[in-house]
Write a structure and sequence with these properties.
By secondary structure, the chain is an alpha/beta fold. The chain is globular, with a radius of gyration of 18 Å.
């Protein structure tokens, strides 16, 4: 467990029931004083909720609380690694996670962030459930896998062929760990991360590509404030995919920033401070007026026991 005690008033963890009553793990970090807003995070394939330390350390002093879940089959959550019966499991799990956050923090503004595969989960959820999504302040997609991905064509075709007859068939994605970040210390830590995995099943492959196609086909229906951040040298999720989606969105309140030379895990790349500053600026612009004054860590009220 990472030690955040020097800058965070409280760290909490627990579980909540996902689809099929699967007990999914989540953790949250809370600042001292009153919370101005909440950032909820959905991680990428093979990742887990411990991978966003830089985001947490940056936002906590600004009076944000951060919540992050471990997707089914990831991190501390149960389930076969890289397997789902249907994409709706990811979608409904995310809905249950947001309900938990809103129950624990009634009336507090919530932003939803998805990274990589998590970005696809977030975009799909918001497009499928616009009424529930209207309760959110906005959505952020970091390196969403919306176009070509850094997985070989042979692996993709094999997954599609086996999805019906052997849905739990598992392959290594073959994604090079060096494509995650230009920071060698980050890569060394990833190599030692026992909760990280590189597995994907045949069923996940077909559900993923079908969902991406659906998202792109319904991009014009998007209504929520949207921020897309992508590395220009991302070899895992090619940046052209998010650019195409961005051009199809008709909502006026949208922004896409591409960082030349940056890799897939922007929050852990060499330019992460620039990325987090852009994220913070966008969040501040989309806070409700009554809570924007809490930004910058100036609040002195006690955090409620929720």
């Amino acid at each position: 467990m990472i030690d955040y005690s020097d800058r965070i008033a409280s760290h909490r963890e627990g579980t909540f029931p996902g689809v099929g009553e699967l007990d999914l793990y989540y953790q949250s970090w809370h600042p001292e004083g009153k919370v101005g807003a909440i950032l909820a995070i959905s991680h990428g394939l093979g990742g887990h909720s411990d991978r966003y330390n830089n985001v947490i350390q940056h936002l906590i002093p600004k009076q944000y609380a951060v919540y992050a879940l471990d997707l089914r089959g990831h991190g501390r959550s149960p389930g076969q690694q890289g397997y789902i019966n249907a994409w709706s499991e990811f979608r409904e799990d995310l809905g249950a996670f947001l309900q938990l956050i809103q129950t624990q923090n009634p009336g507090c503004p919530v932003f939803l962030l998805g990274h990589s595969l998590g970005g696809v989960i977030v975009l799909d959820y918001i497009l499928r459930y616009p009424q529930q999504a209207s309760l959110l302040q906005g959505a952020i997609a970091i390196a969403p896998t919306l176009g070509k991905v850094g997985v070989s064509t042979v692996r993709v075709l094999l997954g599609k062929m086996l999805s019906r007859v052997w849905p739990r068939f598992t392959l290594n994605t073959g994604i090079d760990i060096s494509a995650a970040s230009r920071d060698q210390q980050v890569l060394a830590a990833y190599a030692q991360d026992t909760m990280r995995h590189t597995r994907a099943t045949a069923r996940l492959a077909t559900e993923f590509f079908a969902t991406v196609d659906w998202i792109n086909a319904h991009a014009a229906d998007w209504q929520l404030p949207l921020l897309i951040l992508h590395g220009g040298a991302d070899r895992v999720a090619l940046p052209a995919g998010s650019e195409i989606f961005y051009q199809r969105v008709n909502c006026k309140d949208q922004l896409r920033i591409e960082y030349p030379g940056a890799y897939h895990e922007l929050q852990n790349d060499l330019n992460y401070r620039e990325v987090l500053a852009d994220l913070e600026d966008w969040l501040e612009l989309h806070l409700p007026p009554q809570t924007a004054q809490l930004a910058g860590g100036n609040a002195e009220l006690d955090f409620p026991n929720s």
